[in-house]
Amino acid sequence: MKRRNRQVDPVTGITIDGTFNTRVLGIDPQRHLLRSATLDQLSVAGIQELGDVGLALVIDLREPSERGDDAHGFPVALHPIYCAVDGPPLTGSLEEIYETLLLTRGTQLTAAVAQIADADGPVLVHCTAGKDRTGLVVALALLAAGVSENEILTDYALSGLEVAPRRRAIAEGLLAHLDGDDDRDLHTASLRLHLDSPREALQHAFDVLARFSGPEAWLLRHGLDIEQFAALRSRLGGISHES
Question: What's the confidence (pLDDT) of residue 241?
Answer without folding.
Answer: 57
